[in-house]
Structure formats: structure tokens, C-alpha cells
Amino acid sequence: MNDSTASGDDSSGNQAAPPPPKAIAKKKRNLPGMPDPDAEVIALSPKTLMATNRFVCEICKKGFQRDQNLQLHRRGHNLPWKLRQRSSTDAKKRVYVCPEPSCVHHDPSRALGDLTGIKKHFCRKHGEKKWKCDKCSKKYAVQSDWKAHSKICGTKEYKCDCGTLFNRKDSFITHRAFCDALAEETSKPPATVSPLSPPTAASSPPPPPPLPSEHEDSTQTDVVLPDNNNHVTEMLESVKPDSTSGRTLDETPVMTNLTSGSSSNGSSSSNVFASLFASSTSSGSFQSQTAGFSNLFQAIACSDPTPAVAPSSSSEPVALGLAVNQGSSIFGTAGPDHMQYPPAAPPPSLSATALLQKAAQMGAAASNTSLLRGLGIVSSSSSPSVSHDGASLAAGLGLGLACDSGSGLKELMLGTPSIFGPKRTTLDLLGLGMAATGGSTSGLSVLMNGGLDVPAATPFLGREFGGQDIR
Amino acid sequence: MKAEARGKNPSPTMSSMQNPSLFSNSRSSISGAVLTGCLSSLDGACIEKLLLHCGSALESNDVTLAQQVMWVLNNVASAVGDPNQRLASYFLRALVSRASRLCPATMSFKAAGIPHRRLMSVTELAGYVDLIPWHRFGFCASNNAILDAVRGFPKIHILDLSITHCMQWPTLIDALGKEPESPPVELRISVLSWRPPTPPLLNIPIEEVGQRLVNFARYRDVPFDFNVIEVGGPLDEEETIFSSSFYDFLLSQLNATMVKVNAEEALVVNIQNWLRYIPDEETSSSESSCDGIMSYRDSFLELVGRLSPCLMTVVDEDCDLGAQSGLTSRIVACFNYMWIPFDALETFLPKDSPQRIEYESDIGHKIENIVGYEGPQRIERLESGGKLCRRMAAMGFISVPFAEETVKEVKVLLDEHASGWGMKKDEDGMLVLTWKGHNAVYAGAWVPHDLTSHQNNLLV
């Protein structure tokens, strides 16, 4: 896209803002507020505004939300007939401004004449959405809005025989076309159609009563077909097996094999890489300190939030089927490659590991090199305390640290855990065995220093720089 | 190097070492508080730049720099954060996957723990395509255009090339069922037995989907037939999708005989989110009828033209990620584009909604392909609407504008969805779905320019 940058900026802006109102031309109407220039402008604080009632008894000043309630109350005062009527000279017309300073209605010339209206406005625009619809999870700040919605929600609806409700016609039709309930209903089989109902009925727990074969929408289907899978199985038997299903069967064993590992990993980190960057060295895993990437991928192997799948009956093997097999080599040549995108990478001239080894042997770099500065993505709002955090970031990279990027650095490197939480044995990310605490004198020249304070390097602090050799 | 040795070791137990305070939602320590403050300044523009740098690092084989940027990205990305964070996590996966292939001796990213995507049932798919108007927009525009184009013809044959397993057709069948014509219009839909290996994935074969459509059409009293065009042979093997012989073969199957073109029928070719899987690299194709260099995509369009359809509808995603774009520009374009569905889902579903996670994971799958691969393995070669229009014109097609009724229908559809969705009609006659003003999906309709005589024959 040509405008990728522009939309990138837009996206950053759009994050914070609520969805903009529709850009369709609104009905032209006068600016709201101030029909009566003589009206008295009232400005109330939010609390007072919410507490103020629109209808107030002139006798005892009791407030009411509704006029009827006020009238009922007034009867109790036993007023003489004349005074029962509301006084014709009403109090001076009052208009109210919105207490929110940034709001357009904060301006007295845009005040709203109706107290209830300004209260609702304030809640809707500036208030917390406390009312939630049960059915569709839409949220409202004003109770009456919520009530009005609840009345509608699910009522303008289309109901499938299977019981699912839809509030849009096309989604209802699409669902209905494929729904089992329909299949059940129309399945009085002519010769050409493979019989759907009888075998399926046999498999469903309560046998369905004989269905009349009618075409109208009928609710006589007592039995909703059980889960699709039963139905599917039946269908598959009656459908000509094609090459795809044949293929699936071939692949199933492999896929199963691959996935069995993943299910046993069981890590539930919400981020794949958290474990990478934070994880420990349990005994065997760090013997090969060669490639940082291998750690990365182990972590990926171990945690993923997305749901697992049964690879049984797909007509396409899933490319995301990347399961780990703990017992065998993740990184080696395990099995035939059933990925959809079989890697075909040529061997690089210099591997990551070698690069890092080389860098680790280099001397300390200029202390003020900043990766992110160099990348030009320094955020202008970086805080002054950044330098310490920058150092910790460098530590996080497992890189050598610049000598003097901050006085706190040595502490950090020495593993003072006080600020940063409990000490952890952490992953040697890049497979560089950092020489114990002398790590401050070795390492790569590039380091994050003040560019981006991401002290998520936490896990690296207090790490044991076990003197594992770089191999 | 001991990489091979490492492979034999069990992977470390990660659970004890996961550090949630890496992310801004930690409040447990001072570092957590600082983290919140600094990470919040990393907005979409920052992430975009980080991705850009990572991409250029990978392009120049600077694995170290790439790793470092990835480390930062890792601290930003979160599968359960805001749309930018979620998107970033999929991008990071794809980049890591790609980077791993730079160092094949030490690792191969084959089976690294991302579980299989669950296959959906057909009713779940029906809900999936309606989660956001992403697909429904194209369905609605195309179906209306089709109905306009085939009016008056007693028989319709639709060649459906799409990735959504015929989710488009129930509404068309329903519309046909409503028309008070007697005798009713006969409809036939053909699909290929091959489908691009991309989500959404279904747990039943296409034949069964067709069977259900048959039932539905019977229920709506629409004479209906469904066939699967067997494009067997080399297409049975997965690997061959990356070879040119695959496309040669596929295109060779798209002729009047295989498609069973019937002179009595009005033929419609409906291409929905499918054209992008036909390579657009400029190579000489064995099928090209002219001496010039044509891509497979051009050849394909030419073949379609030769079938003389009375309408050809194309719906696809409005982004340029074609063969010629380099990694860095692709990453940036893809990030800015894929943000759109992520943001739309954010305004509509809660962070932990399984439907949302599935939808995002499918997009992540595409990102993995777009960012992680090059050459023939990169099957997602999106082309923007503008470029497609020029391509269609170059191949001799004439644009068919959408009727006002269609435009209204689409507007009504969008009104039923969240308020950020909009639509515009561009100068090429296409309709474009927009989200908060950004182009998302385009829909266009064309006819081959020498069609008129054919149409006259049919109407006699």
C-alpha cells in the first residue's frame, strides 16, 4: 500500500479514540442549546448534576425523577384548588452545561435545556458504561438506553430450528442452509440424495419421531441433531471418498505424532516469548549454547494461547500445525516435512551463533550506543531514569554491557534483585555464557541505552552467569 | 556446534520461568510500574518501525540485529493485549519462523508448539464469515451483481472459486427462491476439488457442503445442482503448489469442457479471495496465447475470458503484497493492513473471545506466509483493487458498475454492523469496504469485451 505510513500513524491515533461517529451526513439542525437567550445558565458539578432532580416540589423541595410522581406527592400537601395547578409563571427557564471541560456542551452557548437530557448526555459521553446487555454484551452508560436496547436485542430475530437466534437475515439464511436441523427436515431422500436422516437418527441418543416432510419452517423438529460430527461421519460414508480424504488419512498419523508433543507441554503462558526470555535453564537444555534461536523456538514450542485442534479430518493439513515433540529433536530432521510451507533455506554463510560468538569476544562498546536510537524509533517520551533501565535492557539481551551506561549497571549485573523482584535463573538467551559478573566488559557493541526503557529485562537480572563456555 | 546434541535434550520446563511482569499488566514490582509507563508509549507507529527494522535486518542477513529487535518486539507483543499488540505477536512469530530458516543447521521451525488450528464445523463457519462484514460485504455485492446480470436467463451456472466453502450461496439461493418467476430459474454451482491451503478450514469435504446446499435449495424450491470439478493429478501433492507445473496444470483444467460450459446457461465466474493465490510473477507461461510475458494470473484471466461468462465478480483484500514487493515493504504494508480486522474485532468482541482468537489466528497464519516466506512458497500475493482494475483492463475486460440497488443493499448490511464500517465507490466502479476510513476489501465486476454477441445468442 502506498499509504502504509500514513495509515500506520492513523492506527496509532485510532487506538485511543473511540470509534468515530458515522461519517454519513447528519440531519441538518440548529446547534443544540440556547433557544432562549434569557435563560439562566446553570453549571453543576458532576455529582450535583447527577443528584439533581428535574421535578421539585415547590413546597417541601423534595425531588422526583418523574412528573407524575411529583404530582402524586403534591396531592399529599392538601393544596387549595388554585394552587394545585402549577403556577403559570414558571421559574425562569434554566439551561445546563456539561461539567466535562472538554465537551462541546461545556460552553454556555451550547447548553442543553433539559436537565434529564444533560444528565444522559454526560453519562453517555463521559461516563462509565455500567449497564451491559446480557445477550449481546453491548454496554451502556444510561440505564434507559440499556433498557431500550434490551427490548430490541434478540427480538427482531430469526430463529433457526436448532434454536440459534440471529438478528440479521443473511447470517440466519447462511446458517440455516447448513444447519443440521434443515438437513433433518428435508431429508426425505429422493433416489439421488444420499440418505441423511436414517443413519443419523440412529446415532442420535433419543430417536427422533418421524418427521413430516414439509417445507415450511416448522418447529416440529423435536430433536436437534447431535453434534455435527456424527452427521459428518455418516455423510462421509455416503459421499464418494475423494483424493482429499485419502490424503488426510495418510497424514493423520504424522500430524497426530506431531501434536502429541504439544499437548504435553502444557505451558499456559499468554505469550509465547515470555518463556523464552524469562525461562530457566533446566538441566539438560543448555548444553548446547550455540544458538539463541533454539531457545526462542523451544519457548514457542512450549506455550501458545491458541486452541489446539484435532487434525483428523481436514482436507488440508494445517500449516499452523507446529507441535513440538519433546522427546525428539525439535530442531533436527524429525520426520517428513508436512508443513505447508516447507522451508527451503540455503545454509547461511555465517550463522547467528557464530556472529554472536564473535561479538562476545569483542571489547566493550561505546557506552552510549543505543539500538533504538540507531533505529530511529526512540520515543520522545522516554523518561530520565531510562539509562538504568537501558542497562537492564542490555542485560536482557544477554549481550555484553557497555562499561559505563549508568551507575546502577553494575548492581544490576551483579544481580541485585531488590528492585526487580526475585532472583531467577534465567535463560541465556543468546547462548552466550557470560563470564560471571565481569560481563560488563564484554559483549556486543550495540545496546539499548536510553532509547527505550523496557526494563522487562527483569528476568535477566540476578541471573547466574554460570561460566558456560561458548561453543 | 552442539546444536544437534541439544536436540536430544528435553526442553526446559518453561512454566516456572514465565514472567508475566514482562508485560505491562504487572503491578507486582516497581519494574512493573515502570514497564507500564514505557510500554504505553509504544504505539502502532513504533511497532511498525520495529517491524520494519527487523525486516530489513533479515533482508540483509543481519541476524543479530534482527534478534535484538525481536527481543524488543517480544516485550511489546501480547496475544491478549490491544490490537497492535496482538498483531505484533503474530508478526513476531512469522519473523522468528523466517529467521530460523537463516540458521537451518541449528534449528528448524517445523513443529514449534503452535497448535493446529481447529477445524470448524459448517455452522461454525457460517458464524465465522459473519463475525465482521469482511466476507459478507463481498458476498452481498457479488450476489446482487450476479442477480442483475442473469436476469432473464432461465439457467445459471456459477463457477465458484473461493476460500469460504460456499458460504456465499445460501443468500443467493434464497433470493432466487423469492423471485416470482415461473418456471423457476435453474441454478448450478461448480467448484474445484482443489482449494488454496489457507484458513478458514472446514472439517467436512466440499462435496458435503454441496449436499447441504442441495437440501437448502430444495427447501426453497430452487432447482439446484452442485458439481465438483475434479482437478486431480499433480494437485494431490502438497508440495507441488509451489511449482509452476501446478499452475500450468490447474490452468489447463479451466476450459469449457472441464467446466462443462453449456450454451443454454448464463455463466458467472465468481472469484472471492482466491485470485491472490494465482502467482503474479511476470514469467512466461506455457498457456499464454500472446508472445508477451504473462503471469499466471494474467493467463488465468485470459482463460476465464475465453469461457465467455456473462459476469465475472472478483472480491479480494485491498492491499499490495504481490510478488514484487520486498520483505520490508511487505511487513509494513501487511502490518498496517492486518491491523484493520484486528481493530474491528477489538471493538466488537472481548479480548478472550474464542471466536476472536480463532479469527486472529487465521490472520496470523496468513501473516506467517506473507512475512515468513519468499518466492513460490509465498502463496498469499494480495493485489489491491486499483492494480486489479488495470490488470483486468489490460486483459480485455470491461468493468460493470454496481447498480444503485446493490449499493443500497450493501449500505443496509453495513448499518447492521458496528459503526466503524463504511463503504465507498471508487472511480473504477468498484465498491470498497472501509473500516474507520481504511480500505479493507474491494468488490468488482467485469465482462470480457467481446461478450455481446454471445449474450444475444443466449437470449434467443
Automatic annotation (TrEMBL), chain A:
Domain annotation C2H2-type: ranges: 55-77
Biased composition (Low complexity): 189-203, 256-269
Gene Ontology biological process terms in this record: regulation of DNA-templated transcription
SMART domains: ZnF_C2H2
GO MF annotations in UniProt: DNA binding; zinc ion binding
InterPro entries: C2CH-3rd_BIRD-IDD, C2CH-4th_BIRD-IDD, C2H2-2nd_BIRD-IDD, IDD1-16, Znf_C2H2_sf, Znf_C2H2_type
Pfam family, any one: C2H2-2nd_BIRD-IDD
Polar residues compositional bias, start-end: 1-15
Alphabetical keyword list: DNA-binding, Metal-binding, Repeat, Transcription, Transcription regulation, Zinc, Zinc-finger
Region (Disordered): 1-37, 188-269
PROSITE patterns in alphabetical order: ZINC_FINGER_C2H2_1, ZINC_FINGER_C2H2_2
Keyword Transcription regulation: yes
Protein name (record): Zinc finger protein ENHYDROUS-like isoform X1
Biological classification of the source: Eukaryota, Viridiplantae, Streptophyta, Embryophyta, Tracheophyta
UniProtKB/TrEMBL annotation, chain B:
Annotated region described as SAW, given as residue ranges: 372-447
Disordered: region residues: 1-20
Family designation: Belongs to the GRAS family.
Motif (VHIID): 156-160
InterPro entries: TF_GRAS
Pfam name, any one: GRAS
Coiled coil, from the record: none
Annotated Polar residues bias: 10-20
Domain of life assignment: Eukaryota
Stated name of the protein: Scarecrow-like protein 32
Keyword set includes Transcription regulation: yes
Alphabetized UniProt keyword annotations: Transcription, Transcription regulation
